[in-house]
Amino acid sequence: MKFPAMYIDLAKIRHNAQLLNRYCGLRGVRIAVVTKGISAQERIVRTLYDAGIREYADSRLSQLRRMRHWFGKECRLMLLRIPSPSEVHEVLQYCDVSLNSDIETIARLDQAARAYGIFHEILLMVEMGDLREGILPHKLDAVLKQLTSFPRIRLAGIGANFTCYGGVIPTAETMGELSRLAQHTERIVGYPLTCVSGGNSSSLPLIMQRCELGRVNHLRIGEAVFLGRETAYGQRISGLYQDAFEFAAEIVELHEKPSVPQGPISRNAFGQIPRFEDRGIRLKAILSAGRLDVCAEDLKPSDAEYAILGSSSDHLIVDVTDGPPVKVGESIRFQLTYGALARLMNGRGIHKYFRCDPLLELLSAVEA
Q1: What is the per-residue pLDDT across 202-220, written as a single tens digit (0 to 9) for each?
Q2: In a shared domain, residues 311 and 175
C-alpha cells in the first residue's frame, strides 16, 4: 500500500446517495449530485448511478465530457460554473443545461447552438444575497426580455446560490422569494419553468425541518452525499455516513522534540508568522503529506488524542504524545472537510483505495 492515500467506501456513498435521493424525492425535490469534489472519479460516479442518480453537476468541462462518454444521453449533465465565452462549443457538446447569469455569454451560446442546429437549456441564476453569481432581482425583467431574442436558448428555470462565497444561509423566506421570482419569470416568458434550483447541501435543513419550499424542486448536492453533512451549520445528517472518505499519510520520522522552535522567528515558507505554545518536550510524527496536498486546517485525526501542529509544503507534523503508540512506516488516518476532500481527490500523487462492504450493500438494497 502506498501513501498518501484516500480510503473510499463505495457502499457508504451508495447508501448516502440513495437515502438523500429518496428523502428529497418525498418533498418533490430532485437532486443533481455535484461531482467536482471527487474529480468525477469513475468508480464513485458509477456507484452513484447504481444508487439511482441520473443527474450530475460539475464545474469542469473535462469531467462532464468523461461522464457524457460513460452514460451518453441517459443522464442529465449540468455545468455549474458560469460558462466561459471561449468554451461555448464544448458546453453545447457535453452539457444538457448550464447555469448562466451573463447575457453576453447566453448570446454566444445561442449563436453556437444555431450553428449546430440544436437547442440548449439554461438555468438563470438570480442573486439572493450570497454575492457570487446571479442577476440582481430588479434587473431580472430586462434580462428575461432579452432572452426572447435567442431562439435556440430554452429557459429551463431559475436558481440561486448559498453559503459558497458570502456564507449566506438559505431560509424559508429566501425559498419563498425565489418562488415568487419563478412565478414572475413565468409571467414574463409565458410558459412554466421546469426547474427552480434552491441551492446546495446548505438547503437540506429546510427539507429535514419540513419548511415550506414553495416552487423549489431541485437541489445541487455534493457534501451531504460524500461526507454526510449539511453545509449551513455543518451538522451531521441522521442516517448518513460521515466516514465514506478517510485520508492517511505515512510516518517518516518520529522523535521527541521541543514544542517551541529555537532561535529568532520570521515568516515561514508561506509568508505566515507562526505562533507556538510551550508544552515542553513532545513526541512528534512527521508525515508524508503537506500543504501541496491538503491544508492541515481541513484535517482532523481520526484518533482524537493526536493533535495536528502544522505543515510545510511536503510534511504534516502531528503530536502523538498522548495517543496510541506509533512507529515509522505506520500511517495516521484523518477525517476530512469538504475542502480537504476536493483538494485530495483533484490532486495528483494521492493513491486511492476502494472498499465495498457486501453487507452494507445488501442493507442499502433492502432499504431502497
Answers
A1: 999 999 999 999 999 999 9
A2: no
Residues present in the chain in total: 368
The CATH number of residue 262's host domain is 2.40.37.10
Q: What is the pLDDT at residue 359?
A: 57
Which structural domain, as residue segments, surrounds residue 330?
Answer: 245-336
| pTM attached to this predicted model | 0.93
Structurally, the chain folds into a number of domains equal to 2
Pick the catalytic residue: 2, 12, 36, 139?
36
Q: Any catalytic annotation for residue 145?
A: no
More confident site: 72 or 262: 72
Q: Is the distance from CB of 315 to CB of 290 less than 8 angstroms?
A: yes
Chain centroid to CA 86: 25
Residue 92, class by beta-carbon neighbours within 10 Å (0-12 exposed, 13-18 middle, 19+ buried)? buried
User: How much is the CA Rg of the chain, to the nearest whole Å?
Assistant: 23
Which residues are registered as beta bridge partners of 31?
219
Residue 156 burial class via C-beta count within 10 angstroms: exposed 0-12, middle 13-18, buried 19 and up: buried
